[in-house]
Amino acid sequence: MPHHHHHTGSHIVYITGFCDAVNALDTKTKPKRIRVLGSDGISHSFLLKGNEDLRLDERVMQFLRISNDLYDRHQETSSRSLRARHYNVTPLSHKSGLIEWVSGVVSMFKIAESHFNRHQDKDVREENKRENKTWNAVNEFHDVLVSKTNQKCVSSSPKKRSEYPEQTIRDVFTELQRRTPRDLLSSEIWMSSTDTSEWCMKRRTYCRSLAVMSMFGYIIGLGDRHLENVLMDFHSGEILHIDYNVCFDKGLRLRVPECLPFRLTKSMRHALGVMQTSGNFERACVMTMCVLRKHRELFLELMETFVYDPLIEWTKTSTKRHNDGSSSKNNATTAATFDTAAAAAAGMKDDSKRESNDYAIGVVRRIENRLNGGTMENLESKFDIETQVNSLIRHAISKKYLSRMYEGWAAWV
User: Fold this and answer.
1) Exposure string (b/e) for 289-305, b if CB count within 10 Å is 16 or more?
2) pTM here?
3) Helix/strand/coil for 132
4) Longest dimension (CA), the chain
5) CA–CA separation, 101 and 155 (whole Å)
6) Model confidence pLDDT, tens digit, residues 138-178
7) CA dist 38 to 4, 185, 263, 264, 344, Å?
8) Do the strands 23-24 and 32-38 form a parallel or antiparallel pair, or are they unpaired?
């Protein structure tokens, strides 16, 4: 059984068969949920994905497991049970693989969709039900954009996002943020708790897991943190991230370059409690970053393996998600700056094997800069841990940068 964690003594669980029923998920790639029968008499669920290289996801899971081991070795992090929630990935080929099915989690998209569907006008809700329409962040953004600019005949000749002034985009973001309740997530945590003691435990766990994944995600350049890639376990309060295909700064190369270190939107901050990003969250971030920076040599050595690994995804630029062909001028400048730094870093390498993979070498250099104290604005600086963490948090919650994110990212939620 792939990555089976429930061994009995020294006995290995073998595959004895497969269930006949296969469920196809209603997503773009149509992955299949399969159930595998084990020699332990238990049915184990996996997600079978095709036309996707999962080797990168497998490596990131290895990183998460190693970082969790490091947190357990340090008193401050182990006493607070700081760790990142992860799952098992088993690549079967360069185009397919199995992903451990994680039960009991809900995506942030489902939480937002449920809220907006409940609060729609009755006529609109019935019409959407007849036409099988669901809430969509992109459509909501463009509806507000049209109403703000009084654009006519939008269906026949829609303007691209890049054709609007930056201030107009920021006004649309502000309006969307005003319409979205800040307690979207915190109310769900409260409703899932049986008493105040359980609620406090879940909120504390949520705060710590969010801090760990925020710092880890910044170090590895994790992007594409839209609502469907961030999951919530309401039983424990843990945050679970999925789909690590856009990591190691690939988000900088999207058509709408990403300009945030991690996802820390309004509803996520409100769920942290009255102190929000100050207090427990900030402290957990500092302790996590302290461990990561203390073991920077280990992480850099692990990263070196990527330089020699023939992953096609290193040189591919994923632009399918942002298909409007637009990008913020400042975001494009940021991406160009990083690409220039990557090329400069690559030119310093004498090894011909490394020179054949310039982009990977640039990624390693940027990760090294982050582990040395670099921030979004000053990547090559060497700030102390508290200064670095405070700078990242300020950047992540800045409306200036949140409003520049691709509308499908739903930065106002």
Assistant:
1) bbbbbebeeebeeebee
2) 0.84
3) coil
4) 69
5) 40
6) 888 988 888 888 754 444 455 677 788 889 999 999 999 99
7) 10, 37, 38, 40, 52
8) antiparallel
